[in-house]
């Protein structure tokens, strides 16, 4: 054998090894104790180029349907499908099967076990946790709805196929949904998914439904053959956060010798020296389209706050509350939460609607009033405005702050829409704004 021929064999063998590494299909298993031990075997297909990089990859988790037998598809059939999968993402297919002595209500994908599997796979492979997608057909479609509703913070987008939605749809407001169904499905009525999609969109969600008019219960293959499905998956990143996952925000408040005039028009030049605080977000989701801009100034007497609340329907804003300390947050409104002592406990709340009605409280005590508070509001074609002067003395904050000192704040905006109240926060705290332990830190600076 000549050296040239021998070198060629080594080169070909190297190509074959590279090809195998880039088309790697592996199997695994996971167990979860839920009343009894649940075990799922699974197949993983790594994308082409996985072994040649150190990057994190998107992941698609596919839950198969029931064949009506005591076991789902064989691992061989799952492996075959995985080998045919060619999208640039890690592809995971668990195998569902009835366990011995299973209770009837466990004859279904178990959400806790599926999430355990997902976490095990994410720990073993390089998974981009902001781009994890979930899909499934029939029994797997129903499980897709249920699992995503229980764990919305785990998924960037879901595609349930001929499935049935369960409880907790409101949790999917920040998870894009593309549902598929056969128009002649006599196993699962397409009206179920249609209702879920309409409900989500009515409450601020991002959902759509594709119905194949002449197809029965087996719409999954048609959905999988749609190349736009995978482009749609990859266009989304995770937007919903876990309840204990918080976004950190920081900002500045400029100390000035020239206080602004409190007239609601935001026209004073002194506001231009203040940092613009923006990027308001849904409590558990992404940044909102209708943004708000806040600026902070301070002198020895007052803290000054300016608010520019962009609004596409300025003639339709709600401001029914007219009495002091009424439930202003039921209107279009802006809320200021201040923790000037930085103890992360004692905080003050001031809520204002576009008519200038004020609610003020100290740690939910409505008997507290911000003595000396000045408030003026205004309206533009594309926004409504607020200017506020809050005396430091009313906040028990004496002496006035100095350069380099800090305080903690949270701002919240409420927009009552026809079907729900859209709240955005800075910083987002995954729920109630009465959470001083998660307020943003504001540092005082000079002009």
Structure description:
- With 447 residues, the protein is α/β, with parallel strands linked by helices.
- The chain has two domains: 22-234, Rossmann fold (3-Layer(aba) Sandwich); 250-446, Immunoglobulin-like (Sandwich).
- It is 18% helix and 31% strand.
- It has seven helices and 19 strands.
- The strands form two sheets. Strands 9, 10, 11, 12, 13, 14, 15, 16, 17, 18 and 19 form an eleven-stranded mixed β-sheet that branches. Strands 1-2-4-3-5-6-7-8 form an eight-stranded mixed β-sheet, sandwiched between helices.
- The termini are far apart.
- Residues 1-23 have low confidence and may be disordered.
Helix and strand element order: HEEEHEHEHEEHEHHEEEEEEEEEEE
CATH fold descriptor of the largest domain: Rossmann fold
What is the total domain count? Answer: 2
Q: Strand count, sense and closure of the main sheet?
A: 11 strands, mixed
Helix content: 10-25%
Number of helices, counting only DSSP H or I runs of 4 residues or more: 7
Radius of gyration: 28 Å
Question: What is the CATH homologous superfamily assignment of the largest domain?
Answer: Alpha/Beta hydrolase fold, catalytic domain
Specify the structural class. alpha/beta
Average pLDDT, rounded to a whole number, is 90
What is the CATH class name of the largest domain?
Alpha Beta
How would you describe the oligomerization state of the chains in this entry? single chain
Instruction: Give the low-pLDDT segments.
Output: 1-23
Strand content: 25-35%
Shape, principal axes of CA atoms: elongated
Distance between the termini: 81 Å
CATH architecture field of the largest domain: 3-Layer(aba) Sandwich
| Strands, total number | 19
